[in-house]
Design a protein that fits this description.
The complex is a heterodimer of chains A (about 400) and B (about 280). Chain A is α/β, with parallel strands linked by helices and about 400 residues long. In chain A, about 45% of the residues lie in helices and about 20% in strands. Chain A has helices at about 10, 30-45, 50-65, 75-80, 100-110, 125-140, 150-155, 155-165, 180-190, 210-215, 220-230, 245-255, 280-285, 325-330, 340-355, 360-375, 395-400, and strands at about 20, 25, 70, 85-90, 115-120, 140-145, 165-170, 195-200, 240, 265-270, 285-290, 295-300, 335-340, 380-385. In chain A, strands 3-4-14-9-10-13 form a six-stranded mixed β-sheet, with helices on both faces. A four-stranded antiparallel β-sheet of chain A has the order 1-2-12-11. Chain B has about 280 residues and is of the alpha/beta class. Helix content of chain B is about 50%, strand content about 15%. In chain B, strands 5-4-3-2-1-9-8-7-6 form a nine-stranded parallel β-sheet. The chains are: A alpha/beta (about 400), B alpha/beta (about 280). Chains A and B meet through strand 2, helix 2, helix 9, strand 11 and strand 12 of A and helix 3, helix 5 and strand 6 of B.
């Protein structure tokens, strides 16, 4: 394991070329290199600009409804009989998930860069909806790429995007899911690079995306850190979040990285079980490689071809993961575990019945792990879970599991 | 002298433009590739770009995406492609071969293992679409150590500063991507290409090839007017797709398409020499 000074983490990662140790970087075709440097320049310029910050803060407060509260899940804590469980309520954000924190940031950047057209990829549709929402508000043209299979599975979110004025393009290539939507969005960007801003929805892609999306999502951890201190008088013992690309997890983890007493656990989708090969857990069962602009852990075969993934939750159904998570795993600062579809579904019902909160199926993976972890800890310890989104979008999936059809 | 360098030297001595076809290895079936390569040489290919299929070819349009899918359905791997090269070299020891593809299959094999094997079977160059000079230090060192030319792309969006950097790292030739877009998209604009090539030549003495958007003899001849090499890909791959159900006829069909471009380029070269 690389020996890293955690005290210097904020200063050192990523390096100026966008590397987190061996991960990250900029692996894209030459046509996009100019656009990526242009974006990096703009981001550097505006991220500490007081006017940009003020506009962003105002939008996060008045449009999104931040700060999102933390909630002490007392019923569930009592039932599990162990650590105190706190929920960071990103599900209460406008559009129903953490995704909007990032789309607001990137859309404001796009506006300042003079771009008139926004593109995005989406899996479950949450990032697509969050992008279409900010595009509608800023009066920008918006095109969302979505795997043809996901278009079928998430008809409601497709309709929401259309209502918001976005064009939704079903992607027919490859496995017709999120990774193919990302390929297609990159192809669009190459073709329309002059006027188009690509809003990537997770901490993946070429530098500066992983660092930029992390920074926009870090509002989650900054708020939560202060809220936990205010509520409990100390930092939480353990943070838990689900991981697809990893944006909600890094948003929660990042402000705590140099707090070495705080354990950080990312929960990947084990799908039907790691041993079946039908999962979406690159950190737990994958190997390093290069995809979508960065080096990271991937689900791939021995010849370096990306293989198909599976998760009950479309938001976790991706063969890669943000490069910073790859690095946090290698240096041992965060731990990555998995939860199966069935376990996630059980946790979904559990939280719904005990606390009156219907979580997204993605979030349910984090909850399922906590249901195993909390009883092993003591009552004076605390676990903070990022409730990355609400479960409204998953009604069809959950009902179908119970044999119901609307 | 590398095969690529020698090839350009001979062509330039005769006032000729290089013709570089691209085909995806193993498309539509693995056994077709070696006979197809020989047929391309017979039809006038000076250098061949052999595509290494990848599951997520994000810089390619639908034509080459589908070619990758057809090849991968037959379990074509970098290893099996190197075997194809070995087989090709049994009958042809002069035509330079460039492997073109994405970084991940090379990462999976390991750069060093790849460099050794590729050199041993007679690969002359490698073009990795998603590996810019910024990420290439180790890769360049290993390819260089095994006499494999590293070919880089220059795009319409490439700044002068980057051109300089790319020119420092490039070997064999420079590949100018003539349009903003994926492979097989729009038609190229010859005046813009001419201006950009002049700029590139300020920074390099390497030959400059032009690809993306060349569809027929006419556009090939127009590009030959200004470039050292004409690269043609999607048009040939589309022909492969059309013949994927009768692969026996495929080498001849693709070769006749290439021959048409060869004739158009030769006619242009001849006119230019006599003028």
């Amino acid at each position: 394991m690389p020996d890293i000074q955690i005290d210097d983490y904020f200063k050192n990662y990523p390096d100026e070329l966008g590397h987190f140790g061996p991960y990250g970087g900029r692996f894209v075709g030459e046509t996009l290199m100019g656009a990526i440097y242009e974006l990096e320049e703009a981001y550097k310029k505006y991220k500490n600009d007081p006017n940009f910050q003020a506009e962003m803060d105002k939008d996060l407060a008045d449009f999104v409804g931040r700060p999102s509260p933390i909630y002490h899940a007392e019923n569930w804590t009592k039932k599990l009989g162990g650590a105190q469980i706190y929920l960071k309520r990103e599900d209460l954000n406008h559009t129903g998930a953490h995704k909007v924190n990032n789309t607001i940031g990137q859309a404001l950047l796009a506006k300042r860069m003079g771009k008139t057209r926004i593109i995005a990829e989406t899996g479950a549709g949450q990032h697509g909806v969050a992008t279409a929402t900010v595009a509608a508000r800023l009066g920008m043209e918006c095109v969302v790429y979505m795997g043809a299979e996901d278009v079928e599975r998430q008809a409601m979110n497709v309709y929401r995007m259309k209502l918001l004025g976005a064009e939704v393009v079903p992607v027919q290539s490859g496995s017709k899911t999120l990774k193919d939507a990302l390929n297609e969005a990159l192809r669009d960007w190459v073709t329309n690079v002059d006027d188009t801003f690509y809003i990537i929805g997770t901490v993946a892609g070429p530098h500066p995306y992983p660092a930029m999306v992390r920074d926009f999502q870090s509002v989650i951890g900054r708020e939560a850190r202060q809220q936990m201190i205010n509520t409990t008088g100390k930092l939480p013992d353990t943070l838990v979040a689900c991981i697809g690309g990893g944006s909600n997890a890094i948003g929660l983890f990042y402000p705590f990285i140099e707090d070495e007493s705080v354990a950080m656990i990312g929960v990947e989708g084990a799908g039907h079980g790691l041993q079946t090969g039908q999962h979406s857990a690159p950190l737990s069962a994958g190997t390093p490689g290069v995809l979508h602009g960065n080096r990271t852990y991937l689900i791939q075969d021995a010849a370096g071809q990306i293989t198909e993934t599976h998760s009950i939750s479309a938001g976790l159904d991706y063969p890669g993961v943000g490069p910073e998570h790859a690095w946090l795993k290698d240096i041992g600062r965060a731990q990555y575990v998995t939860v199966t579809d069935t376990e996630a579904l059980d946790a979904f019902h559990e939280l719904t019945r005990t606390e009156g909160i219907i979580p997204a199926l993605e979030t349910s993976h984090a909850l399922a792990y906590v249901s195993k972890l909390a009883p092993t800890m003591s009552a004076d310890q605390s676990i903070l879970i990022n409730v990355s989104g609400r479960g409204d979008k998953d009604m069809h999936t959950v009902a179908a599991m119970a044999g119901l059809n609307f | 002298m590398s095969r690529i360098k020698e090839c350009f030297k001979n062509l330039q001595a005769d006032g000729q433009t290089a013709l570089i076809p691209y085909v995806t290895a193993g498309d539509p079936e693995p056994w077709v590739t070696v006979p197809l390569l020989h047929a391309l040489v017979d039809a006038g290919a000076d250098i061949i770009e052999l595509g290494v299929p990848f599951s997520d070819p994000m810089s390619d349009g639908p034509v080459i995406q589908k070619a990758c899918e057809r090849a991968l359905k037959n379990d074509v791997t970098l290893d099996s492609i190197l075997d194809m090269v070995k087989q090709f070299r049994e009958k042809n020891n002069h035509t330079p071969l460039v492997l073109m593809g994405y970084a991940n299959p090379l990462e999976a094999m390991g750069y060093e293992k790849f460099a050794k094997k590729a050199q041993a079977v007679g690969v002359d160059g490698v073009l990795t679409v998603d590996m810019p000079p910024e990420e290439s230090d180790e890769f360049l060192r290993l390819m260089d150590g095994h006499d494999i030319d590293t070919i880089f792309l220059v795009a319409p969006t490439t700044s002068a500063e980057r051109m300089q950097k790319i020119a420092q790292h490039a070997k064999g030739f420079i590949y100018y991507v003539s349009i903003k877009g994926v492979t097989g998209a729009a038609a190229l604009e010859i005046n813009e290409v001419t201006a950009k090539l002049e700029e590139i030549r300020k920074y390099t003495s390497l030959p400059v090839g032009v690809g993306f958007g060349i569809r027929d003899g006419r556009s090939a001849a127009a590009v030959a007017e200004v470039a050292d090499a004409v690269v043609v890909g999607s048009t040939l791959v589309r022909c492969i797709e059309e013949h994927s159900n009768r692969p026996q006829e495929l080498p001849a069909a693709v070769a006749s398409l290439l021959a048409e471009m060869r004739h158009a380029i030769n006619a242009r070269d001849l006119a230019s020499v006599s003028a």
